[in-house]
């Protein structure tokens, strides 16, 4: 059985609901990743050897935690975080529950991207700011974030695309969204129409996000 357009139209309400659930999940997770991951990424950079807040103990501890979470496959992370998820949102299924695991997975991912973007900054710029009497906060706000904003925006784009893939995986454990629809209707019921439709939706969503992200990154890149 191939793609049945009539069947697709019948499923549009379910597809629309699943799409909105996916947007809900990735929006919350991206917001948490940026709010928590950005300062972690900055700390990973400025506490490194030779930087103005050098602290090897903090740098090593943060690096270990970030690497530990990143090394856990997402499907295992989903299961491992069930107690935390239930404590935060009161349930282990649905988009809100999936957002907890998605956020935990996205924070270290984005933090490393921020750290990498900061490492591309010419250290001479930082040294010049220190020589001019800039405080650490001023250096972070007016030098580091300003110089690395294009790389950080590219990192947000990459994180968002990764979250789309993770959110589809969350559907395997009742997380809702496009992945859940594909599993329940497409896989379990051998419905090729819904499988093709969900794949196309995810592909288009990723392409749109990538194009917009690349465009914004180029606009803000002053190099």
Automatic annotation (TrEMBL):
Pfam families xrefs: BPD_transp_1
An annotated GO cellular component: plasma membrane
Swiss-Prot/TrEMBL GO biological process terms: D-methionine transmembrane transport
Keyword list, A-Z: Cell membrane, Membrane, Transmembrane, Transmembrane helix, Transport
Transmembrane segments: 23-46, 58-84, 96-114, 151-174, 194-217
Coiled-coil segments on the chain, per record: none
Main location: membrane
UniProt record similarity statement: Belongs to the binding-protein-dependent transport system permease family. CysTW subfamily.
Protein name: ABC transporter permease
Upper lineage: Bacteria, Bacillati, Bacillota, Bacilli, Bacillales
Gene giving rise to this polypeptide: sfbC
């Amino acid at each position: 059985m191939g793609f049945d357009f009539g069947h697709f139209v019948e499923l549009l309400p379910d597809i629309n609901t699943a799409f909105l659930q996916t947007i809900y999940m990735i929006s919350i997770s991206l917001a948490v990743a940026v709010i928590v991951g950005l300062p972690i990424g900055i700390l990973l950079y400025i506490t490194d050897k030779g930087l103005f807040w050098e602290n090897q103990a903090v740098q090593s501890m943060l690096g270990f935690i970030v690497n530990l979470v990143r090394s856990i496959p997402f499907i295992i992370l989903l299961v491992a975080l069930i107690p935390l998820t239930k404590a935060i949102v009161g349930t282990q299924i649905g988009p809100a529950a999936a957002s907890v695991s998605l956020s935990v997975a996205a924070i270290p991912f984005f933090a490393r991207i921020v750290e990498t973007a900061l490492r591309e900054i010419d250290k001479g710029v930082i040294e010049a700011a220190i020589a001019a009497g800039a405080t650490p906060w001023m250096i972070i706000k007016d030098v580091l974030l300003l110089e690395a904003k294009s790389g950080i925006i590219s990192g947000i784009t990459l994180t968002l695309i990764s979250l789309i893939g993770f959110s589809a995986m969350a559907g395997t454990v009742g997380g809702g969204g496009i992945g859940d629809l594909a599993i329940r209707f497409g896989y379990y019921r051998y419905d090729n129409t819904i499988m093709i439709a969900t794949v196309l939706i995810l592909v288009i969503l990723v392409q749109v996000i990538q194009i917009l992200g690349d465009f914004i990154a180029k606009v803000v890149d002053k190099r």
